[in-house]
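Ligand-bound model needed. heme C.
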Amino acid sequence: MRYRFVLGAAPLVVLASCATGSGSVASEGAQSMAADYQSFDQSFVGSVQPVVNGYCTGCHGGERPRARLDLTAFENTAQVVAAMDVWDHVRQRLEAGEMPPEGRPQPSAEERQEVISWIESLSDYEAQRNSGDPNPVP
Ligand code: HEC
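Prediction:
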């Protein structure tokens, strides 16, 4: 597969146009190609957060989150990207049907798949975005 790189494009122009919320997206995106998480943010709020808040944060939140995984700490896509390895585990556990643990309320197959697909798409998007990075982090 070949990707088109947009090296040296002015990231600030794009970021300014989508700087609707906090400034965190801008600081995350500045590291390589401009990141545009707008549609990811929409599905994060619309599809991912409801599943996580409904089925995960009872254990992965609060004072002593299980496995020291606090899923309440993630409020937008940029924060997920900053912890992509953690979310890769989330995807794996969901795919394996291992989380939530047996005997606990389970999301529907559709809800589960939506979260898995969201993580996969984001991961692909990041790989593509960073493939133009002259100094990739190993
Ligand atoms: C009833 C409590 C409970 C619920 C609900 C729960 N988990 Fe867990 N989770 C645990 C425990 C306990 C562990 C540590 C043991 C293990 O790894 O199986 C864990 C481990 C994990 C890990 C591994 C963390 C790591 O460092 O690799 C991930 C990822 C995870 N959970 C994701 C989820 C997701 C996503 C949901 C919701 C869909 C969820 N969990 C719901 C109790 C829970």
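The first helix runs from residue 11 to 17.
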